[in-house]
Each structure stands twice: as structure tokens, then as C-alpha cells.
Amino acid sequence: LMSCSLGPVAGGSTDTELGGPVVSGILYDTNGAPATNTLVKLIPVTHNPIQDDPIPDFLTDTTGADGRYSIQIADSGLYNIEAVQLVNRFRALKTNVAVSGDTVYIDDVSLTVPGAVRITLPDIADTDYGYIFIPGSEFSERLSENAIVSIGSKRFMVFDSLPADTLPGIY
User: Fold this and answer.
1) Which of 81, 46, 79 is nearest to 61 (CA)?
2) Taking the chain (171 residues) in consecutive chunks of 10 residues, what is each chunk's mean pLDDT?
3) Which of 17, 59, 62, 155 could form a disulfide with 121 if both were Cys (CB 3.0 to 4.6 A apart)?
4) What is the pLDDT of residue 15?
């Protein structure tokens, strides 16, 4: 579960450095304890991890012993929250978070053991320039003959280390 508090913004104050809304909460691990040492990213829902610039540092935070994170942004918008525990690699993805006003408190999300998705590729899949990705995340994989598995006439790619959740789409 993820719950929220009126704690300070990352960096130790409630000042509005960027002048925009703050997204904050507490991440919990699979045992219900605060998820320490977890990288949290706030990612615009339209983000394409292959074509767009990397997520800037100011849209990230790392939880401490209390599992708290807080990220301040410059503008309101629709975002996804992507989290990965840096030791055991458990993950969470909270999609379509509407950020506006002063502070948005996030709840009802917990880290889970990651999974994989097998994707059937069309015959015309471009192994020179093609890629698959999940919009609004940093999950992407370039198509290559080394990454493609063939079973009979079908070709597949396995998209690994994904959070166990309903994904917004794979392109």
C-alpha cells in the first residue's frame, strides 16, 4: 500500500522551489513495511522512452527509512508514478495520476515482484529501427534478431522486469 502524509518536500522543506504542485506518499514493500531505498519517478503519460529525453532528476526521489517520497513539478498534468526498489528490484506503477493545485497525496499502491509479458510481433517488425515501449514509463526494448524468439512461424519478444499491474498499453 501507499499512504500519504503532510511531510516536507524532498530536500527538507515545504518551500515551492519549482513553483508547482507536489506529489507525495509513502511506499510499502510486499510485507507492509515502508519500502526503503526505492527510486520513484514521476513520468508524463505521453513519455516515449526511446524518442524523448530521459526523465530529469527533479522528477525523481529516493525513499528513506520511512518509505516517504515527495516530488515537486513545474506544471500540472497527467503523470504515471514508476517505482523500483534498488536492492530486490520489486516494482510499482501507478498510472494516470492527475496533478494540479498544491499537493497530491498518493495511496493504494505497493511494490510487487516484477513479471514479464510475451509480445507477438507482426511479420513486418522492423529489427533495424523498431522498438516496443510502455507510454508514460521508462520501459522499452529495441527490436533485434537477438531479442526475438521464434516458435514455428510466430515471432515473440519477452518484455521483462515489469511491475505486476495493468499496463496502460504497449506500443
Assistant:
1) 81
2) 37 50 94 95 95 94 95 92 95 92 84 89 82 89 82 85 73 64
3) 155
4) 40
SS3 content of the chain, % helix, strand, coil (to 5): 0, 45, 55
The rounded distance, in Å, linking the Cα atoms of 73 and 114 is 28
The residues, any chain, with a CB within 8 Å of residue 18's CB and separated by 6 or more, are 58, 72, 73, 74
- Cα 98 to Cα 163: distance, rounded to the nearest angstrom: 20
What is the spatial order of strands in the sheet that 77-85 belongs to?
A: 60-62, 38-44, 77-85, 91-99
Can you tell me whether residue 160 is helix, strand or coil? strand
The C-alpha cell 507510454 sits at 135
Query: If you write DSSP's letter for every residue of 65-94 in order, what string do you get?
Result: TT-EEEEE-SS-EEEEEEEEETTT--EEEE
Cα-only R_g, the chain: 17
C-alpha cell recorded at residue 101: 493545485
All three cell numbers of 29, joined, read 514493500
| Per-residue pLDDT, 23 | 95
Q: Identify the H or E element spanning 154.
A: strand 154-162
